[in-house]
Amino acid sequence: MRDTLVLNATYQPLATVSFRRALVLVLQEKAVVEDADPGRVVRAAALELPVPRVIRLLRYVRVPFRQRVAWSKRGVLQRDGRKCAYCGGRATTVDHVRPKSRGGADSWLNTVAACAADNQLKADRTPEEAGMRLLFEPYEPAGSRALVLAFGVTGAEQQAWFGEPVTA
Ligand SMILES: [Zn+2]
What we know:
Blueprint: E1 4-7, E2 13-17, H1 19-27, E3 31-44, E4 47-57, H2 73-79, E5 93-96, E6 111-114, H3 116-122, H4 127-130, H5 143-151, H6 155-162
Parallel strand pairs: 1-4
Antiparallel strand pairs: 1-2, 3-4, 5-6
The protein binds zinc ion (ZN).
The site of zinc ion (ZN) has 8 residues, from helix 3.
């Protein structure tokens, strides 16, 4: 399945995203379909939708192409789909892999979503010291990921429409 091209409101190409993410933007009325694959439809929330090849954002988004997304706790929770990095349960907190008290940074690579219980259990220790394993490695959102985070389409929202978690 080919990715969908995202145009800014001014028709300037911004990035490509998966067609599912593109459709979430359309369903949220943040974008309109400019071009679709003829004869191909996908089901989402009991709707039959065209598979978009090109969508256009309705509001102009100032997203310099290679701009990094500023780190934020909210951003980390979104990036990790609100899943705890230690147990896979529902995360409501952000854990510093290398604790802040020991020089760990507020950065994408040093933080993961965590449930309150695991965050408390780990306390001021590294995962190794606490005998805890990360289920996934933290990463810095970039490219279309950064764009999607900027748009605010979360894994949970995508899951709500399509019943599938976000994949890269
Ligand atoms: Zn947990």
